[in-house]
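Thread: Modeling a multi-component assembly for a lab meeting

Hi all, long-time lurker, first post. My supervisor asked me to bring a structural picture of a complex we are working on to next week's group meeting, and I have zero experience with this. I have the sequence lines for every component (354 residues in total). Could someone generate the structure of the whole assembly? Inputs are pasted exactly as I received them:
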Amino acid sequence: MIKKISHIAVVVPKLDKAMGFWVEALGLELSHVEYVEDQGVDVAFLPAGESDIELLRPVDETSGVARYLEKRGPGMHHICFEVDDIEAMLARLKAHNILLINEEPTIGTGGKKIAFIHPKGTGGVLVELYELTTGEPARRRERLIAMRQRLTEGRRIYATGVRAFFSGLRYGRNGDE
Amino acid sequence: MIKKISHIAVVVPKLDKAMGFWVEALGLELSHVEYVEDQGVDVAFLPAGESDIELLRPVDETSGVARYLEKRGPGMHHICFEVDDIEAMLARLKAHNILLINEEPTIGTGGKKIAFIHPKGTGGVLVELYELTTGEPARRRERLIAMRQRLTEGRRIYATGVRAFFSGLRYGRNGDE
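Re: Modeling a multi-component assembly
Sure thing. I ran the full set together rather than chain by chain. Output:
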């Protein structure tokens, strides 16, 4: 029922600084970035094989991710598995009396279904389950095209690279979007 | 240069209890288990797509993993990336002034080359790099065959399942190996 590790989420205080390690030094590529309003975070996806490293940068200081960062410091936040049938997986976990954060899937951006398993149910790991819906790949492609346009349209942004792009994105969001 | 996420390591106090979540409830399969003497840990591999969840159970109470467990509690410990050329990757990281735990690769079991990047160099994540050598797949196959024989040879072990097998492995190692 588990297809793969979808992503490993890593909490970072600043996206531009994090890019200095994950992209510039380690050599991963940035495929996708967005602001997830209901979680109050900027999210950047860096593919590694069939999975992603997902960088989470809290924007809203009252968000769960911001509280996590304050309490535990930067580092790994959760593992997300892609499953083929999230309802069946949740039923299976309930049958094993595993403590869930979401008893039913919630609908995320793009219509994808997600649910979290409580760390108390897994032995200390926050686990996300994720069922990809048909709309998600198209939505990501659109976002990527938009991001690439932003990266290449402004000569200044293009010239100063990814770090500066993120600095600009951070401070310029309200003006740009 | 990064081929994929090789594994996500999770520290657990007891392997048999951890199997209750990862195998019995979540439905992952156990592919491989071994005692890694120089790290003082039992290691169990549970494939998820092209990657593994690697459960680490400290045996030696003075090991780094045991100290981690005492300090931070059970949970995610490190991310390991498979790379095609570990020496080239380490040279690249040094060129970016990333703090390394191993400046040169160390040779692990089966001849594989491994090196750790310090969490201070990555923004809070312990990152392992791993270059698969030709001997490793054959070594794993041999280990798996031996484990399966142990799982199926004893009627008692077969009848009482994976959890009991691990309890037995834990207490019976010195007698068995």
